[in-house]
Design a protein that fits this description.
globular, 5 strands, five-stranded mixed beta sheet, 4 helices
Length: about 150
Amino acid sequence: MADEAPEKAAEKEEAKAPAAPHKGGRKRERKEVRVGIAHVQATFNNTIVTLTDKMGNVVSWASAGSVGFKGSRKSTPFAAQTAAENAARKAMDLGLKQVEVFVRGPGAGREAAIRSLQAVGLEISAIRDVTPIPHNGCRPPKRRRV
């Protein structure tokens, strides 16, 4: 019991002593990206816009949910437009000028996202629909009765 007290006192003094300056990991340097790809994933519930370089490394992204829309408002064209503008501004700060747009999914925000990418000032070189279509793969769920 008597031996424990000096050890605890030493531990407390170590905790009070100012810590050495933290040298974090290497600082990530941002490369200047001129040409990239804009992936627009438009589902029935949300729209996600991801801007990448030609290799597929993410430069910036935004979704209707991350921009601040909740619930059924996430699936609106206005939410998709806001998300696309947000992602495009972040990418343009890193030097992105020209994009090729890949659109995936059946959502309402497909056209709105593309229009807002163009409105922010990105040059769109091509638009490609890459929605996955099954060649008679899995059996689809039963029809909705509303």
